[in-house]
UniProtKB/TrEMBL annotation, chain A:
It is found in: Endoplasmic reticulum; Golgi apparatus, cis-Golgi network; Golgi apparatus. It comes from Populus tomentosa (Chinese white poplar). Part of the multisubunit transport protein particle (TRAPP) complex. Keywords: Endoplasmic reticulum, ER-Golgi transport, Golgi apparatus, Transport. This is Trafficking protein particle complex subunit. InterPro entries: Longin-like_dom_sf, TRAPPC. The keyword Endoplasmic reticulum applies. Belongs to the TRAPP small subunits family. TRAPPC4 subfamily. The keyword Transmembrane helix does not apply. Pfam families: Sybindin. GO terms for cellular component: endoplasmic reticulum; Golgi apparatus; TRAPP complex. GO terms for biological process: endoplasmic reticulum to Golgi vesicle-mediated transport.
TrEMBL record, chain B:
It comes from Populus deltoides. Belongs to the TRAPP small subunits family. BET5 subfamily. Pfam families: Sybindin. InterPro entries: Longin-like_dom_sf, TRAPPC. GO terms for biological process: endoplasmic reticulum to Golgi vesicle-mediated transport. The keyword Endoplasmic reticulum applies. Signal peptide: none annotated. Keywords: Endoplasmic reticulum, ER-Golgi transport, Golgi apparatus, Transport. It comes from the Eukaryota. This is Trafficking protein particle complex subunit. It is found in: Endoplasmic reticulum; Golgi apparatus, cis-Golgi network.
Length: 141, 169
């Protein structure tokens, strides 16, 4: 079974710009993934309001009954989040790697328009390499 | 499960992992979203007034639950996003963590929601929440002058809660 179930990238206004499914059962259709992404964007913002102390940057890890959700927000407000099996390690590292790939293959792509859905072949290729299970394990070393 | 256990308070409180007061605040909601109890131990930042804060918290939990139910990667039939679900139905969540706090959440079969907000480095608090639920059953539900659905005003519950929360880390 896959360690990672799916990957989402949402822009600073909560729009889904990238979604990849790595084999979760009962696939979500496009509308559902868009809704889930913008719902996450709002929950992330609300969690900052409810913080008991100053300086809250939003949810980093959500532990559900059947999965873990790790979220990384870049300084520009783009959010990357992976849904993985409960207790999967090294997901922060993986998110940083995905962010690096995003800056290299998406932001530096002259044909990419900011905040628009990502359609870059090189990004897809490198992403599939980064998310392979053994590679994720190597990040922990 | 301890939910339907005997009449004494669960066997023994889960062993504290370290000492020190790490808890920020606690909420108890009933299934209608009424805030039955709000306790605050250490909260320097207040962004909203109390009522708005409780509403926002209940809304966050409700929406996160529908999000997790929809996202659940292990079930085939997940229903539609945003459709209210019965307690125990669909995939729920037990905690989330931000850089400044950790929220632990438990929902009982009767729809009572117990929320404990602690330091982000706190470990798994599922057992502690069950123990708090047992305190609630003992001191609130079994209190003959308590009307279900009303805010909890029970001295004994508050003192035992404070004492217990101080022991968890």
């Amino acid at each position: 079974m896959a360690a990672i179930y799916s990957l989402y990238i949402i822009n600073k206004s909560g729009g889904l710009i990238f979604y990849k499914d790595y084999g979760s059962s009962g696939r979500m259709d496009t509308n559902d993934s868009l809704r889930v992404a913008s719902l996450w964007h709002s929950m992330h913002a609300i969690s900052q309001q409810l913080s008991p102390t100053v300086g809250c940057l939003g949810i980093e890890l959500l532990e559900a009954d059947t999965f873990d959700l790790h979220c990384f927000q870049s300084l520009t407000g783009t959010k990357f989040f992976v849904v993985c099996e409960p207790g999967t390690q090294h997901m922060e590292g993986l998110l940083k790697v995905i962010y690096e790939l995003y800056t290299d293959y998406v932001l530096k792509n002259p044909f990419y328009e900011m905040e628009m859905p990502i359609r870059c072949e090189l990004f897809d290729i490198n992403l599939s390499q980064a998310t392979q299970k053994d590679r994720v394990a190597l990040l922990g070393r | 499960m301890q939910f339907f256990g005997g009449s004494d308070i669960s066997p023994s409180p889960p062993a504290p992992t370290a000492s020190g007061n790490n808890a920020h605040m606690m909420y108890v909601f009933n299934r209608n979203g009424v805030c039955l109890l709000y306790r605050e131990w250490n909260r320097p930042l207040h962004t909203l007034n109390a009522q708005q804060d409780h509403k926002l918290m209940f809304g966050l939990l409700f929406s996160l639950k529908s999000l997790t139910a929809k996202m659940d990667p292990t079930s085939m039939d997940k229903g539609n996003l945003g459709v209210p679900q019965l307690p125990g139905q669909g995939c729920s969540f037990h905690s989330f963590r931000t850089n400044t706090y950790k929220l632990s959440f438990m929902e009982t079969p009767s729809g009572i929601k117990i929320i404990l907000i602690t330091h982000p480095k706190t470990g798994d608090l599922r057992e502690s929440l069950k123990y708090i639920y047992n305190l609630y059953v003992e001191y609130v539900v079994k209190n003959p002058i308590y009307t279900p659905g009303a805010p909890i005003r029970c001295e004994l519950f508050n003192t035992s809660l404070d004492q217990y929360v101080r022991s968890i880390s």
